[in-house]
TrEMBL record:
Pfam families: 2-Hacid_dh, 2-Hacid_dh_C, ACT_AHAS_ss
Name listed for the protein in its UniProt record: D-3-phosphoglycerate dehydrogenase
InterPro entries according to UniProt: ACT-like_dom_sf, ACT_dom, AHAS_small-like_ACT, D-iso_2-hydroxyacid_DH_PdxB, D-isomer_2_OHA_DH_cat_dom, D-isomer_DH_CS, D-isomer_DH_CS1, D-isomer_DH_NAD-bd
CDD domains: ACT_3PGDH, PGDH_3
Recorded name of the encoding gene: serA
Molecular function in Gene Ontology: phosphoglycerate dehydrogenase activity
Keyword list, A-Z: NAD, Oxidoreductase
Domain ACT positions: 340-409
Pathway assigned to this chain's UniProt record: Amino-acid biosynthesis; L-serine biosynthesis; L-serine from 3-phospho-D-glycerate: step 1/3
Presence of keyword Acyltransferase: no
Keyword field contains RNA-binding: no
Catalysed reactions listed for this entry: (R)-2-hydroxyglutarate + NAD(+) = 2-oxoglutarate + NADH + H(+); (2R)-3-phosphoglycerate + NAD(+) = 3-phosphooxypyruvate + NADH + H(+)
NCBIfam families per the UniProt record, alphabetical: PRK11790.1
């Protein structure tokens, strides 16, 4: 598939799930006015219709970009996840079609850490159950099951951007912090790494999960792991719903093994705010249930809008793919005085040589060349004399192994 870069007002940007206005502002400031904006996510059929002629799509965690949807999005050039998680996108399929996927790896991490810390304090004090009782007209004024955070042990599973910030915040309250991670991590503050999940579970008063959704983290916490937690301890998950066996968690709470839990993410989440939320945890007074809002603060959403829209604009304008999660990363400054060509190809021996040969035979002068590869694809960016851009694109199209080629204006 080869294409000339379109006029900016012909480039369709599909924004879903109410991404922040800051994203729209970034696109508009960069000259992109053809924006289709939806407040909610779209089901597969509606999504296929809306994405069919879109060049860029922006989404959050609800929209599923499956292999099937991506295959039918014939014009799609780039995907922006306006969040951290990218598990809702079939990254391999996007790569196969030569489509980079961008996200915002930092912008909402502080928001999650703050929420989790607040939940830990509330749960240690038994507040959710006292709050629920008061709403029913009951008055639970006593100190039973009510503890300070000071001196308690917080166990963090997944000591990344969120886990580390949570650890530091918890230490300011006088909590002791231990963590379990598959990587050896530099402990911040006085945190200590433990080397088995069992040591973490049995050694903590509050356990909080901050791992990504992967094959290894699926059902990472089930009945066996919950039984390894201390009696009367607290469990928090604001990572991904697939990580925890929810019926097993509900049993552990009902049997009074755990004193309480806060759950922000669920294996199946309602598609929109109008759909019913169904969970075996409903009705349990000592469980805080939140609708996947760990990262939903106005500060975070505004920053995410700016960050991800900025990355899509840079890719559209300059071909820069820095921080793409599924794609060779090429950092490029703005080009002036030359035509820039983007060529995405299957990573097989000889593709670059063939492009260079074809250009040499046609007398096309290469002013600059940048190449990066992953196991499966190669991404080469070339600059040629301005009057030779169209001819160069025609030559690129003929190269065997081409997935996409694009000429920037
Ligand atoms: N609730 C929300 O609104 C919300 C907001 C932001 C992020 N999240 C979720 O939180 C996750 C974590 O975010 P982050 O920014 O801290 O990510 P991160 O990539 O910085 O950290 C994840 C950590 O988990 C570790 N890890 C991976 N697999 C593991 C395993 N099997 N066992 C133990 N450790 C493992 C990694 O080594 C890494 O240190 C995200 O992937 C996202 O799914 C949720
Ligand atoms: O905003 C969302 O829908 C997802 C938030 C969070 O889970 C993330 O991955 O950043």
């Amino acid at each position: 598939m080869a294409q000339y870069s379109l006029e900016k007002d012909k480039i369709k940007i599909l924004l879903l799930e109410g991404v922040h206005q800051s994203a729209v502002d970034v696109f508009q400031r960069a000259g992109y006015s053809n924006i289709e904006y939806h407040k909610a996510s779209l089901g597969e059929e509606a999504l296929q219709t809306a994405i069919k002629d879109a060049h860029f799509v922006g989404l959050r965690s609800r929209t599923q970009l499956t292999d099937n949807v991506i295959a039918k999005a014939e014009k799609l050039v780039g995907i922006g996840c306006f969040c951290i998680g990218t598990n809702q996108v079939n990254l391999k399929a996007a790569e196969k079609h030569g489509i980079p996927v961008f996200n915002a790896p930092f912008s909402n991490t502080r928001s999650v850490a703050e929420l989790v810390l607040g939940q830990a304090i509330m749960l240690l004090r038994g507040i959710p159950k006292r709050n629920a009782a008061a709403h029913r007209g009951e008055w639970l004024k006593n100190a039973i099951g009510s503890f300070e955070a000071r001196g308690k042990t917080l166990g963090v599973i997944g000591y990344g951007h969120i886990g580390t910030q949570l650890g530091i915040l918890a230490e300011t309250l006088g909590m002791r912090v231990i963590f379990f991670d598959i990587e050896d991590k530099l402990p911040l503050g006085n945190a200590q790494q433990v080397h088995t999940i069992e040591a973490l579970l049995s050694g903590s008063d509050v356990v909080s999960l901050h791992v990504p959704e992967t094959k290894q983290t699926k059902d990472m916490i089930g009945a066996k792991e919950l039984a390894q937690m201390r009696k009367g301890s607290i469990f928090i998950n604001a990572s991904r719903g697939t990580v925890v066996d929810i019926p097993a968690l509900a049993s552990s709470i009902k049997e009074n093994h755990l004193a309480g839990a806060a759950i922000d993410v669920f294996p199946v989440e309602p598609k929109s705010n109008n759909d019913e939320f169904i969970s075996p945890l409903r009705g349990l007074d000592n469980v805080i249930l939140t609708p996947h809002v760990g990262g939903s603060t106005l500060e975070a959403q505004e920053n995410i809008g700016i960050e991800v829209a900025g990355k899509l604009v840079k890719y559209s304008d300059n071909g820069s793919t820095m921080t793409a999660v599924n794609f060779p990363e090429v950092s490029l400054a703005q080009h002036t005085g030359t035509s820039r060509l983007l060529h995405i190809h299957h990573n097989r021996p000889g593709v670059l040589i063939k492009i260079n040969q074809a250009f040499a035979e046609q007398g096309i002068n290469i002013a600059a060349q940048y190449l990066q590869t992953t196991i499966d694809i190669g991404y080469v960016v070339m600059e040629v004399d301005s009057d030779q851009g169209s001819k160069a694109l025609e030559q690129m199209k003929l190269i065997e192994g081409t997935i996409r080629a694009r000429l920037l204006r």
